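seq as requested:
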Amino acid sequence: MPIHNFDRSVGTMLSSRVAKKYGNAGLPQDTIKVNFKGVAGQSFGAFLASGITFDLQGEANDYVGKGLSGGNIVIRLSPDAKIDSCENSIAGNVIGYGATGGRVYINGLAGERFAIRNSGANFVVEGVGDHCCEYMTGGRVVCLGKTGFNFGAGMTGGFAYVYDELGNFDMRCNLQSIDLESVKDGSSDEIELKDMISDFYSKTHSARAKSILDDWENELPKFVKVFPVEYRKVLGKLVHGDEVNANQKHESV
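struct tokens:
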């Protein structure tokens, strides 16, 4: 189906019908799949409900997946495109603002404020601008390329994995809000990361994803896990509380 930059908020009326009839649970995955080709206007796939998948060959403007509510959005290059996806923007600013569930896969670069206020959706992208993951409280973000500055400002939940090929990602982060860790071989983090990249590749045929997967043993050490400081504090308190409860039970025996 052709789409143009004056086609705005595509999918919102469809999602309202799904939500009205099926509630928050929506429909099973990929019950409704719509293929687009062209340049989408603002708010493409906004509030997209569970069970709906939008696959766009081309590019999109700002606010893709705003308020995403369980739906899936794929934006990818045309098979005959001659450009390098890692060096070209195909989605605008504020992608996935306030998303609560679903997936967004972008086979190219996105703009600023990517996945801000995300609270449950999963994202894979090949590069982002400034303020990525700002105020994020849940979900996952995988970035397979360069980032802008102020990454993770105000981030209190969820995790991100960043491909730090140049080894300078720490200089682009807001380290008051986040800690940085390596992704250990054989860990649950590695499994999650590889699964997300593999699924991204299956949907987009990304050359960057393929090159990473084909040399996984050597590429894995280049990934950095972004861990929110506040979330770590909460986990620490939970562990401490469990230890106190265990000691109290032991003393009462």
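The chain is about 25% helix and 25% strand.
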